[in-house]
Model the fold of this input.
Amino acid sequence: MNAPLLVAVSGPDGTGRSSLVRRLATLLRERGFGVATVHGHGCFLCRRFTAPPRAGVENGEGAPPSGGAARRGSWTRRAHALLDASELSVRTTVARRLVSARSMGRPTAVLTDRGPLDGLVRFNLPPRAGASALFLRIARRYDLTLLLEAAPATPRGRGGEETAGPPATPRARHRSWGSRLPRVARLDGERAPSLVAVEALERMLDSARSRSGGRDTDNGTPGAARKRVVVSIYDDAGNPDYRGDGALVVEKVARRLCDDFDVTVVTAGLRGGTREHDGIHYRYLPVRWAGPRVGQLLFLALLPFLARRLPHDAWLEHFTPPFSTSFLPLFSRAPVVGIEQGRSAEALWRRYHVPFFLVERIGLRCYRHLVVLSEADASAVRRLRPRADVQVIANGVEQRQIDDARLGDGDYILFLGRIDIWIKGIDLLLDAYARGRPPMPLLLAGSGTQAEERKLAALLAAHPGGVRWVGHAGEGLKRDLLRDCAFLVMPSRHETFGLVALEGMSYGKPVLHFDLPALRWMSDGGDVAVPPFDVAALADGMRMLATDERARGTLGRQAGNAAQRYTWDEMTGRYLALTRRLVDTPAVGRRPRRDRRGAPWPSTR
Done:
C-alpha cells in the first residue's frame, strides 16, 4: 500500500492557504481519497506567546543570508526554529499514520497549510544552520509544495506569524527559498479561488501518478487512470464454515479482471485487514467471530457503509443469504452487478418458515444489472425485475483429457460438497443408500459448521455400514476422489448451479441428482435425474449405476463431452466484457458541492 501523499500549501500570510487546503480536502474526498489536514500557526511557543523572534538581517531582495557569524542569529531564534521544525515533522508523521490506518485501502493524502518553506522564510536562517538543514530535510519528505504567489494588502498572521517589512519582502523570501526546495509548484493566488483549487488539484494528481512510476494506467496507456472494480462475497477459500463454489468463481473472475482493472475482493474474516496476492487486493470485514449466520447478517449490514467509502468504478456483488441483496445500488454511484447464486431466500423460507424472500424481492428491484447461472434462474429473476439487464453466465471447469480406458471405472459412490444436512439433502442420501444397498461404499467429502457436522455424526451413527465421511477435501484429495469414484450423487433440496457436478463431469463421471430446475443444464450430459426428493427413486438410481459398468461408461463419455462446453476462459471472459461495458458507460453527473458562501466548488470528475 502506498504511503499518503504529503502536500504543503505555502505562501505569505493572508493568501488563503487554509481555505485552499479545505477546498482541496473536499475535492480529494469526492474522488475517494482518505484525507487528513494539519493546520498550524507555528509551534506551541508561537501560539502561547504572541511576540515572534526577531527576523534578523535581511539580505538584498529578501534572499536568504549566505552565512557568517553576523547572520547566524541569536541562539534563542535558532532553538526556536529547531522546535518549530521538530513539531511540524511530528504532526505530519502522526497525521500520515492515522489516515493510513483509517483509509481501508483507499488512496490517501495529508495536506498542511504551513510547510517547511514557510518555516525557512519566517526564521530566515542561513542554509548551513542546523535548523535550516532540518527544514530542508523535512521538505524532501513532501511530495509537493504548492506556493501561492500573492501579496496581501496588510501581511498578518496569528500566533506570532506577522511578517515585518513591506509586502514584497515575504514574497521575495518565498521565491528565493522555493528555488532551493524540491517539488515546488507555483500558483497564481490572485486568481479566483475555484480556479486555483482546480490547478492545485491537478498538480497533486500529477504528483501521485508520477510517484506510482507511471503504472497507474488503463490498458497500458500512460496517463489514464486504471478503473477500480470491487467484488464482494461472504465466502472465502479460507472460511471453514463454507468453502463453497462462489469463492472459487470469485478467484477466477478477479484474476481475469485484474489484467484490465485494479481489483479489490471484499470478503469476511475473523479480523479486519487487507492483503495483496497475485495483483488482487483483499479486504476482510471482521464478522466471522459472530458465527456463520450472524456473520452473514453483519456482512450484509457493513457492505453499504463500505460502498460509500471504498472508491470503485464498478461493483460485482455475490448475493449473501439469508436476504441475498444488500441494496448496494442505493449506496453506490457506480454500476452494481448483482450475482444471483440461486435465490437462497426461498429455500430458507421452506426450511425455517421465515419470509426472507420478501426482502430479496424488494432488493432485486434496486438492481439494473444481474447475473444468474442458468436459464431457469433468469426466467424467475426477469419476472421479478422485468427491466433489468439479466445475463446468464454459467460456472466453468478446468479442461481435462479423459482416458477412454477408464470410463466406467470406479470403486465407490461419492458425495462432495458442503456439509449442510437439509440444503444438501444428506439425510435423504443416507436413507436412499440404506434402502438401495448398492454394492459400493459411499464416501462423503466436505466440511461445514460445527453444528452441521455434529448432525452428520449423529446420522452416521444411525446408519451404520458402508458409509464413510472423510472430512474436508483439499485440492489434492478432491482430485483423487473425483478420479477414482464410480459416479457422483447430488441429493440437494436446493442448488445454485452445482459446480461439483461439473467438476465430476470433466473427469468423465455420471451425476445422479434430483430433477431441480437449477440442475437442468446437465440434461443429456451424462446425468441421471430422478423425481425431486423421491428417496426410493434415488435408491434405484444408485443401485443401477453401481451395478452397470457399461452404463457408467456411456454416461461418462457424454458427461466429459458436455463439460468441454464450460471453460473458465469463456465464463470469465463474459464477466470481463460485462465489466468493460459498465465502466465505459458515462456516469450520471453529480451536483457540485457548495462552499459556505454558496458558490459551487470545482469538481474534476
